[in-house]
Specification:
Distance between the termini: 11 Å
Bound molecules: adenosine monophosphate
Largest sheet: 8 strands, mixed
Radius of gyration: 21 Å
Strand content: 15-25%
Structural class: alpha/beta
Amino acid sequence: MKILVINAGSSSLKYQLIDMDGEVVVAKALCERIGIDGRFTHKTGDGRVVTKEVAMPDHTAAFEQVKLALTEGEGKVIDSLSEVSAIGHRVVQGGSKYDKSVRIDAKVLADIEGYSSLAPLHNPAHVQGINAAVAAFGKDVPQVAVFDTAFHQTMPAKAYMFGVPYEYYQKYGIRRYGFHGTSHRFVSARCCELLGKPDGKGTRIITCHLGNGSSIAAIKDGKVVDTTMGLTPLDGFLMGTRSGALDPSVVTFLMEKEDLSPEEMDNILNKKSGMLGISGVSSDDRDIAKAVEEGNDRAKLAWDMRTYEIVKYIGGYVAALGGVDAIVFTAGIGENQIDLRREILSSFGYLGLKVDEQANDCRGKEREITTADSAVRAFVIPTDEELVIARDTQALIG
Ligand code: AMP
């Protein structure tokens, strides 16, 4: 069975075609600059690459390119679209209603659209992606929504409520939702297997998804009890270009002093802050690490701020969980940034955690990075959100 996994953004569309017999990626691609000038890159599992500049005025046009790339020309991987059994969509915001993946019908689609006020950059694009997929593949191909927020729905109210008047929760759904749930779910489930407790019972795990966007989750008995991202993916700690949590007065103060509109303020917090804003160098961690090595003080400050904030969150979650069995690192930075992992973990010597320096010297591979006598275990576990989406899709279509 082949499943197409779609991640539709406002001006991009990523896909993976996964053959569920062996869970092999048959092809993956990125349609960029939709509605601008259009760039398309399609790679097959056996190493063929097709790139082209092609106008894609909207998501429907992007899906036309997807269809062509899969079935024709140099990157062809299937004879006909009928080989695609189902389509799984990444959906960022599923609100309080969706605590698991679902088959998409008119009601689900309306809900996804309805949550657009909570995720204005993402949910409208998902709706466009779903509609374009129906137009391209027909109504009979089942479609499934896999929500970034779903895995975090087990959080208790004391963790997900914000201390603003309760009526705003009732009126607008203002609360912590958490994101990257698909990734936290995948790596925590794998961690439970590595701990020899595949059902998760009796486990206390802290998962650190550290990428361009980053979040940490505290997971007890396989269920999330707290996470760093909030109403939107802006909350938490310093990310590539996002500020993470700060004194809310900073926002009103700056809006007043700089005469900023809500949109301008949002842009500063989401696009100009974080590692980029503090360092003035880059949002990319490799550039920051290089600048630190070269003695750039602001890059070093950004690096140290982030490490400190991560350590504080992990420490808080150790308390929330009543101890910790394992800490997991994943995503671009978590899987590859050896020095950052060492710095973070060395703060937990007081818990009896001992880093295995040699084991930690690894990138992008599953590995236990603590010593055999460490009281708390730590792992690098590469994430695979597309595979989770494909598995959920397969499970839901039966
Ligand atoms: P993601 O959002 O998960 O794709 O992660 C993107 C981040 O991972 C960027 O800041 C990259 O600099 C960082 N990253 C990716 N590969 C490496 C690597 N080999 N070493 C250090 N950082 C990396």
